[in-house]
Design goal:
Strand 7 and strand 8 (136-138) form a beta hairpin. The chain has helices spanning 19-40, 93-108, 150-153, 158-161, 174-191, 200-211, 218-227, 245-269, 274-281, 285-293; strands spanning 49-51, 55-56, 62-63, 66-70, 79-86, 112-118, 129-131, 136-138, 140-143. It starts with 18 loop residues before the first helix and ends with a helix. The protein is built from ten helices and nine strands.
């Protein structure tokens, strides 16, 4: 989810929403230790982490999603911990991560421990390695759908709990999963002094509403919220009001899909390759081929 430099042939207007990125970046500080403990299984303590600059200056400027310097203990060397979030399959994610590694290693002269967390709904297809004759590189990819949502719900960190909406549901019905996640958020924000007299509960419920778009569960969330008792009417704060939710969401999605197809065909007519188009629009090569065939 890093910034991408456009070449001259890629000046195509497109609405690339950053709403998921915004929530992830906003919550990442609180999520760090749960990720380290629950997902990465790393032996890192809060005092081991040091803030450093996340921007990489080169011929093009990039900014990583999360970057900390980790202080080595018991004689071990310091290293960097980098975490990236992907809501779409990026065709050459392996090349981008290798680029990050090279830039960060050159800037800080430290080994970089890299993780990509895939939060998309489509099957994950990204490679986690690059292997050439004179160069090899590997990083970790975690598909959040491979983790049961209960791993998130059992946390006391609300920023981490809301990511359960993107995890695997196992054999649980989506209504039960949504209710469990919402109830956990309510319990945490009601009982923890940190959230007293704040809009914390409202904030996290709004964030769940946004993140649920990746799973198509907005209507389910409204349905479950109506069954619960709140000190405020969350249904008035959600972007889609009940009754308008499904139709409006489907209409907007269809309009954006049609606009994207037009831009893909425009780019193809200007000489962009199928691989470049897939990379630019964050879709699969097969999708690009189907759009071109259907023109």
């Amino acid at each position: 989810m890093g910034k991408k430099q456009q070449t001259q042939t890629q000046q195509i207007p497109i609405d690339k929403s950053n709403k998921f990125d915004k929530i992830i970046k906003e919550n990442m500080v609180e999520c760090t230790l749960p990720f380290i403990d629950n997902l990465f299984k790393l032996n890192i303590q809060p005092n081991d982490m040091v803030d450093i600059d996340t921007q990489i200056q080169s011929t093009q400027e990039r900014e990583v999603d999360f970057l900390k310097k980790i202080k080595g203990r018991n004689g071990a060397e310091d290293y960097l911990l980098q975490i990236e979030f992907q809501s779409k399959n990026e065709v050459r994610m392996n090349a981008r991560m290798a680029e990050y590694y090279t830039f960060l290693n050159r800037k800080y002269d430290l080994i970089v421990d890299q993780y990509v967390i895939y939060i998309g709904d489509e099957a994950m297809t990204m490679l986690n390695y690059t292997q050439h004759k004179n160069f090899s590189h590997r990083f970790e990819i975690i598909n959040i759908r491979d983790i049961n949502y209960l791993e998130f719900v059992k946390s006391d960190v609300p920023e981490f709990v809301i990511l359960g909406i993107l995890a695997g549901f196992g054999r649980e019905k989506s209504e039960i999963v949504v209710e469990n996640i919402l109830q956990r958020i309510i319990t945490i924000t009601n009982n923890n002094q940190r959230y007293k007299n704040t809009l914390g509960q409202e904030k996290y419920l709004r964030q769940i509403d946004v993140m649920s778009q990746l799973r198509g569960l907005q209507s389910t969330i409204i349905k479950i919220l109506k069954k619960m008792d709140f000190t405020f009417d969350i249904t008035k704060d959600l972007r889609y009001q009940e009754g308008e939710l499904v139709g409006k969401a489907e209409g907007e999605a269809k309009g954006k899909a049609e606009e994207r197809k037009k831009n893909i065909l425009k780019g193809h007519s200007r000489g962009m390759t199928i691989v470049d188009l897939a990379d630019f629009f964050d879709v699969s090569i097969e999708y690009i081929k189907n759009v071109i065939k259907s023109k």
